[in-house]
From TrEMBL:
One of its GO terms (molecular function) is 4-hydroxythreonine-4-phosphate dehydrogenase activity. A divalent metal cation binds at residues 188, 233, 288. Its main location: cytoplasm. This is 4-hydroxythreonine-4-phosphate dehydrogenase. The gene is pdxA. The keyword Cytoplasm applies. Homodimer. Pathway: Cofactor biosynthesis; pyridoxine 5'-phosphate biosynthesis; pyridoxine 5'-phosphate from D-erythrose 4-phosphate: step 4/5. It comes from Pseudoduganella umbonata. Transmembrane segments: none annotated. HAMAP family: PdxA (MF_00536). InterPro entries: PdxA, PdxA_fam.
Length: 355
């Protein structure tokens, strides 16, 4: 599946959509701060309530200029190319007044509308990629929309049968390792449901997606993928579970037959060591809390979330809405992860172009 990329205008900064997330959380603040910090490299177009974002931007720094655009005007005339002296906002109005730290389900559908507009914008050629600020799943569900997460929503809206969640970042305390990447075989799933969700075919598709996207979106010529087992000690030859024998190992053998360098299954409690990770471009973990605690411990505040397998580039921060920080007012949230998400989205767009 090829990535949708618009033609770049000579001399124009690449345009990336920034969905500003849950308005009562830190998403609006980190989106504005990161977009303003990176304005010389990237035309970061914010998607959200223009009046609320302009007010927030002024409170952060009176020098931040915000120009509001209507979605209909962009649909009819395309995306204007402002200079780096201002931030463009495609206005997607909220339904209710925002109280920092306090969720309001009336705003749930507006948050979803920013995601829809970002996908529309990539397809229409307005944006090269999307970087998403954190949202609150409960608010959207309370608004009457079944929603399990960004990853699943982007897959559904783009008609993608299977996607892969991967987190990445520059790890601290792992000598010689410049980048740690951890992908997940299952995502937002109850632990009791994980074993039944693992199949030879599903793992095979997951490995295909990881291998293809590491090549096409990250420019890695021959990706090396290390795969964890599901059970303690990778099942200990069947004494602690047979998923490694019956599902994971056959999926790896079939992937290798297709030319994918996939190794394992390895015990998850010993895999995350420098001597193994230095020989890996990505680790595939079987479930959410098997791989992500390690990655977030090593990279938190600098890590990103990437959705592999989509016909577009989508990155995100590695943290949540932090309602408690938002309730304390502006100035308490760090925007480092959002800056990394924007930078990674640009790098992936460049790699997809062969730059």
């Amino acid at each position: 599946m090829s990535v949708i990329l618009p033609a770049r205008r000579p001399g124009a900064r690449p345009a990336i959509a920034i969905t500003t997330g849950e308005p009562a959380g830190i998403g609006p603040e980190i989106s504005i701060r990161a977009a303003w910090a990176m304005r010389e490299r990237v035309n970061c177009v914010l998607l959200g309530d223009a009046a609320f974002l302009a007010m927030t931007a002024h409170a952060i720094d009176p020098d931040i200029r915000v120009s509001a655009l209507s979605l209909m005007a962009v649909r009819n005339g395309g995306l204007p190319h402002f200079g780096p002296d201002r931030l463009a906002v495609i206005d997607i109005p909220l339904a209710a007044h925002v109280v920092p730290g306090k969720l309001d389900s009336e705003n749930g559908r507006a948050v979803l509308a920013t995601l829809d507009a970002s996908i529309e914008g990539v397809k229409a050629g307005w944006f090269e990629a999307v970087a998403t600020a954190p949202l609150q799943k409960s608010t959207i569900n309370d608004a009457g929309v079944a929603f399990s997460g960004h990853t699943e929503y982007f897959a559904d809206r783009t008609g993608t049968a299977q996607v892969v969640m991967m987190l990445a970042g520059e790890p601290q305390g792992i000598p010689g390792l410049a980048q740690l990447r951890v992908a997940l075989a299952t995502t937002h799933l109850a632990l009791k449901d994980v074993p039944a969700a693992l199949t030879i075919a599903g793992l095979g598709t997951t490995l295909d997606i990881i291998d293809r996207d590491l090549k096409s979106k990250f420019g890695i010529a021959a990706p090396r993928i290390l795969v964890t087992g599901l059970n303690p000690h990778a099942g200990e030859n069947g004494y602690l579970g047979r998923e490694e024998i019956d599902v994971i190992a056959p999926a790896l053998e079939a992937a290798r037959a297709r030319g994918i360098d996939a190794r394992g299954p390895y015990p998850a409690d010993t895999l995350f060591q420098p001597k193994y990770l230095q020989d890996a471009d990505c680790v595939l973990a079987m479930y959410h809390d098997q791989g992500l605690p390690v990655l977030k411990y090593a990279t938190f505040g600098r890590g990103i979330n990437v959705t592999l397998g989509l016909p577009l580039i989508r990155t995100s921060v590695d943290h949540g809405t932090a309602l408690d920080l938002a309730a304390r007012g502006l100035g308490h949230a760090e925007c480092g992860s959002m800056e990394q998400a924007i930078s990674a989205a640009l790098d992936m767009a460049n790699a997809s172009r062969g730059n």
